[in-house]
Amino acid sequence: MGVSEDKAAIRKAAFRARKAAFDLDAGGASGLLSSVLAGYRGVPLSGYMPIRSEIDPLPAMAEAAAHGPVGVPVIRAEGQPLVFSRWTPDAEMTEGPFGARVPAVEELMEPEIVIVPLVAFTRSGARLGYGGGFYDRTLDILRARRATLAIGFAYGAQEVPDMPIEPTDQPLDMIVTDAEVIEV
């Protein structure tokens, strides 16, 4: 099997594990994320609007928004990096690409912390997403400008022992799960 096939197999199993964890979610994971973000009050950050069975960062994002700018990713086009639009808990939202909601009024911002959704992760900071490369391209650009902290947010059930890494894959600096904070 090649890297693409290996990643596809991992992705398929991880989607099942994520869905099972989502079905059992009692909503407490955001507290761990909030405690991590408390150490970065006022630093511009981006979260995400959860889709399907993704773990929900919105309570932590709302708490962070009381202390500084919070954005959400906006997909402009396939093969392009993400941009980030300012978000507040009461922002009017509209349907964006791939089913993720985006602010109806766009106000671009640049985060220094990016909360990254994922399908699977390793303890060493490898991340498997949906396969579009949006976060990899975006983190590469942001990290070329300044130190940018990438925090993976996931259920512990999404952890895998190993996965193939490609040169374009951007590592996570930390993973926050429903049970622990993993420093990479």
From TrEMBL:
Q: Does the keyword Magnesium apply?
A: yes
Q: Which UniProt keywords apply?
A: ATP-binding, Ligase, Magnesium, Metal-binding, Nucleotide-binding
EC class: ligase
SUPFAM superfamilies reported in the protein's UniProt record: NagB/RpiA/CoA transferase-like (SSF100950)
GO MF, one annotated term: ATP binding
Gene Ontology biological-process annotations: folic acid-containing compound biosynthetic process; tetrahydrofolate interconversion
Cofactor(s) the protein requires to work = Mg(2+)
Give the catalysed reaction(s), semicolon-separated: (6S)-5-formyl-5,6,7,8-tetrahydrofolate + ATP = (6R)-5,10-methenyltetrahydrofolate + ADP + phosphate
- Name the Enzyme Commission number(s) assigned to this protein: 6.3.3.2
Q: Which domain of life is it from?
A: Bacteria
> One Pfam family name from the record?
5-FTHF_cyc-lig
Query: What family does the database annotate?
Result: Belongs to the 5-formyltetrahydrofolate cyclo-ligase family.
Q: What is this protein called?
A: 5-formyltetrahydrofolate cyclo-ligase
Q: Which organism is it from?
A: Tateyamaria omphalii
